[in-house]
Design a protein that fits this description.
Layout lengths: L3 H14 L1 H10 L14 H15 L3 H19 L1 H5 L4 H6 L1 H12 L8 E7 L2 E6 L6 H14 L13
Antiparallel strand pairs: 1-2
Length: 164
């Protein structure tokens, strides 16, 4: 099965920047798009490919990765509506991310290895998320978090005191 994140990156790049950019950057990373990528790809391949695309677009790192997370969230949602529909609000969703949502991802994509995210309620309006990934794609996680808020009709502030 093709990697979920690679597919999101490919679709985002093709629809926002064109197929030529995607194919050119994929070729520079020796990715043959006629061959499906396995789930257990080199962790840094996604980041390298995304950074190639980002540099070609001239966007800042934060803009590129956050926008990827925000804009590709509807595709994830359409593939796994139960993961979101099972929760009354964003707070419930985030607090159950590791125990219910990621297992649903793994049920849909058996080879998936979602980065662990530990959620802790700091008060009624604040959730602290610890994204435990060596990839360092904190901006992508930030985009997903903002999309979750929007999914529940909310807006908010997502801050990153540190990444990695």
């Amino acid at each position: 099965m093709e990697s979920v994140l690679f597919k999101l990156l490919e679709d985002h790049t093709r629809s926002n920047f064109g197929a030529e950019l995607w194919l050119g950057c994929a070729a520079l990373e020796n990715i043959d798009r006629n061959v499906k990528l396995p789930e257990n790809y080199d962790d840094y391949l996604l980041e390298r490919l995304g950074e190639r695309i980002r540099l070609a677009t001239g966007l800042s790192r934060g803009e590129f990765w956050t926008d990827l997370g925000t804009s590709s969230f509807p595709a994830l949602r359409s593939q796994m509506p139960i993961a979101l529909d099972a929760f009354a609000n964003w707070r419930e969703f985030f607090l159950n991310l590791g125990t219910m949502v990621h297992p649903a991802v793994c049920a849909t994509y058996p080879d998936a290895k979602p980065a662990p995210i530990v959620a802790k309620a700091l008060d009624t309006d604040t959730i602290q998320l610890r994204y435990l990934s060596s990839r360092g794609l904190c901006e992508l996680a930030e985009g997903f978090a903002m999309a979750v808020l929007a999914n529940y009709g909310e807006s908010g502030v997502v801050t990153q005191p540190e990444c990695r």
